[in-house]
C-alpha cells in the first residue's frame, strides 16, 4: 500500500529549511543502481554517490532485503541492552581489520568525536592531564561538531562559534618534517586522513604515513586514521590503511559503512578500548539494529576479492578517460586519488570553477561533486556498471565541451 503525500517542490526548501545548504535546483525522487530520477522524470547517472556514501548504488537488493527484514523484527532497543545485528557487525569488523573492539554511533563526526575523546582519555589515564595535544593536518576535514571541526584544519568551518577547543595544532599534509617538528611528549594523538577528501582528494605519501607511525610510537602518541570517506572498499582495499600497510591505533568509519543508512563506527584495540569504561561515553542510537543490519549487508557484499579487484579496474577506466577529456579541453592538470575516490584537479585556466563544472554536468544528466573550488570529485558506487561509467563520462564530456565553447 503506497502512502499519499502532499506535493512538495524545490522552493519549499527556501521557505522551511535552515539555509545552511544550497541544494541543486532539481529534486531527486528515485534511484536504482547508479541511476537517479528527479521530479520531472529526468534520468541522471550518479558519480557523486551521496558524497561517497552510496557504496552499492541506490536500492541495492541485499541492502533492501536486510533493512526490510530488520524493520519487521526490531527497530530500537537502546544501549541498556545489546542486539544481534550490532554484535554480528562488530564481530565481522573485528575479523576483517586490526581492531579488537568497536563503538557504534550514527555519523562520521560522532566516530571522530569518540576517537578524539578516547585518545585524550588514554593519555590522561596513562600519563596525566598535560598530555592532551592533538596534531592534525591543514585542510583536513573531520566533522562538524565543535571538537571535530576544531581538529579539522579549515578555519572557514570552525571560525565564529566562540572559543575553540584548546590543545589542537595543524601541520601541512604530506610534510613529515613539519610533523616531526610539531610532535612532542605532550601529544596524545596525530589525526590523519589516508586520503584527504574534502580538500581535494589528496592521497598520503607512503613514507609520510610510515613516518607518522614511527613518530607516534616514539612519543607515546596514538595514530588516528579518519577513514570516513576513504574506507569501506573505496580505495580498493577494505580500508585504506591496508593499502599502505600502516596500522593505526584508532580508525573511524561511516559514510559507506551504511550504504546510505546512517551509521558510524570507531575501531580500536582492547588495550585502548578499556579506557572508555561504563559511563564514559555513549549515544542513544549508536548500534541501532536497523543500521547494523544494513551495515552487515554492506560489509558482506563489498568485502570480496571480486569487488575489491573491480574497484581497481574501474579506477583505471575513470582515470584514463578523465585524463583524455582533461587533455582535449585543457581542463585538468592532474587526475589523482585511490580506487573510486577520484579528484580531477582543474588547470590554471579553470581554477575556481569546480561548481560550474558540477552544474554543467548535472544539466547533461550526470551527478559529480567538488572537493574545493579547484577539484572535481568522483565517488561512484563500487559496483557501478561499465555501461554507466561510459555513458556517464560521455555526458560529462558533453558538459565540458559546452563549458569550453562558452
From TrEMBL:
Q: Which cofactor does it need?
A: pyridoxal 5'-phosphate
Reactions it catalyzes: N(2)-acetyl-L-ornithine + 2-oxoglutarate = N-acetyl-L-glutamate 5-semialdehyde + L-glutamate
Name any one Pfam family assigned in the record.
Answer: Aminotran_3
Report the coiled-coil segments. Answer: none
CDD domains with a match to the protein in the record: OAT_like
Xref: Gene3D superfamilies? Aspartate Aminotransferase, domain 1, Type I PLP-dependent aspartate aminotransferase-like (Major domain)
Q: How does it assemble?
A: Homodimer.
Q: Does the keyword Ribonucleoprotein apply?
A: no
What's the gene?
A: argD
Q: Any idea which positions bind pyridoxal 5'-phosphate?
A: 108-109, 141, 226-229, 284
The upper taxonomy is: Bacteria, Pseudomonadati, Pseudomonadota, Gammaproteobacteria, Pseudomonadales
Q: What is this protein called?
A: Acetylornithine aminotransferase
- Which key words are in the record? Amino-acid biosynthesis, Aminotransferase, Arginine biosynthesis, Cytoplasm, Pyridoxal phosphate, Transferase
Q: What SUPFAM superfamilies does UniProt report for this protein, alphabetically?
A: PLP-dependent transferases
Cytoplasm: is it a keyword of this entry?
yes
Q: Specify where it is mainly localized.
A: cytoplasm
Where it sits in the cell: the answer is: Cytoplasm
Where does this protein act, in terms of pathway? Amino-acid biosynthesis; L-arginine biosynthesis; N(2)-acetyl-L-ornithine from L-glutamate: step 4/4
Report the co-factor binding details: Binds 1 pyridoxal phosphate per subunit.
Organism for this UniProt entry:
Pseudomonas pohangensis
For this chain, the family text in UniProt reads:
Belongs to the class-III pyridoxal-phosphate-dependent aminotransferase family. ArgD subfamily.
**Biological processes, Gene Ontology terms:** L-arginine biosynthetic process
For this UniProt entry, the molecular function terms from Gene Ontology, in alphabetical order, are: identical protein binding; N2-acetyl-L-ornithine:2-oxoglutarate 5-aminotransferase activity; pyridoxal phosphate binding
Amino acid at each position: 500500500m503506497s502512502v499519499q503525500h502532499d506535493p512538495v517542490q524545490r522552493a519549499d526548501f527556501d521557505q522551511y529549511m535552515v539555509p545552511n545548504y544550497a541544494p541543486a535546483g532539481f529534486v531527486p525522487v528515485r534511484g536504482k543502481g547508479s541511476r537517479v530520477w528527479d521530479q520531472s522524470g529526468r534520468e541522471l547517472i550518479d558519480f557523486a554517490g551521496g558524497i561517497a556514501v552510496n557504496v552499492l548504488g541506490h536500492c541495492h537488493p541485499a541492502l533492501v532485503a536486510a533493512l526490510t527484514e530488520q524493520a519487521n523484527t526490531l527497530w530500537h532497543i537502546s544501549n541498556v541492552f545489546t542486539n544481534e545485528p550490532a554484535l554480528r557487525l562488530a564481530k565481522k569488523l573485528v575479523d576483517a581489520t586490526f581492531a579488537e573492539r568497536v563503538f557504534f554511533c550514527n555519523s562520521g563526526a560522532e566516530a571522530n568525536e569518540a576517537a578524539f575523546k578516547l585518545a585524550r582519555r588514554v593519555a590522561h589515564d596513562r600519563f596525566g592531564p598535560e598530555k592532551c595535544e592533538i596534531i592534525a593536518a591543514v585542510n583536513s576535514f573531520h566533522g562538524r561538531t565543535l571538537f571535530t571541526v576544531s581538529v579539522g584544519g579549515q578555519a572557514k568551518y570552525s571560525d565564529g562559534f566562540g572559543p575553540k577547543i584548546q590543545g589542537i595544532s595543524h601541520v601541512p599534509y604530506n610534510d613529515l618534517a613539519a610533523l616531526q617538528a610539531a610532535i612532542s611528549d605532550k601529544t596524545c594523538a596525530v589525526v590523519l586522513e589516508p586520503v584527504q577528501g574534502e580538500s581535494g582528494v589528496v592521497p598520503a605519501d607512503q613514507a609520510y604515513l610510515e613516518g607518522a607511525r614511527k613518530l607516534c610510537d616514539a612519543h607515546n602518541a596514538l595514530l588516528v586514521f579518519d577513514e570516513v570517506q576513504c574506507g569501506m572498499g573505496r580505495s580498493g582495499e577494505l580500508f585504506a590503511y591496508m593499502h599502505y600497510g600502516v596500522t593505526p591505533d584508532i580508525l573511524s568509519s561511516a559514510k559507506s559503512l551504511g550504504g546510505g543508512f546512517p551509521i558510524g563506527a570507531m575501531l580500536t584495540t582492547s588495550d585502548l578500548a578499556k579506557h572508555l569504561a561504563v559511563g564514559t561515553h555513549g549515544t542513544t542510537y549508536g548500534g541501532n539494529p536497523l543500521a547494523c543490519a544494513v551495515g552487515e549487508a554492506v560489509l558482506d557484499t563489498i568485502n570480496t576479492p571480486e569487488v575489491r579487484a573491480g574497484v581497481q579496474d574501474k579506477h583505471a577506466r575513470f582515470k584514463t578517460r578523465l585524463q583524455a577529456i582533461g587533455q582535449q579541453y585543457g581542463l585538468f592538470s592532474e587526475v589523482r586519488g585511490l580506487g573510486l575516490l577520484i579528484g580531477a584537479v582543474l588547470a590554471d585556466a579553470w581554477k575556481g570553477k569546480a561548481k560550474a563544472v558540477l552544474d554543467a554536468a548535472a544539466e547533461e544528466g550526470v551527478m559529480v561533486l567538488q572537493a574545493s573550488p579547484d577539484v572535481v570529485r568522483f565517488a561512484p558506487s563500487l559496483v557501478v556498471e561499465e555501461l554507466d561509467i561510459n555513458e556517464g563520462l560521455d555526458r560529462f564530456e558533453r558538459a565540458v565541451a559546452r563549458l569550453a565553447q562558452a
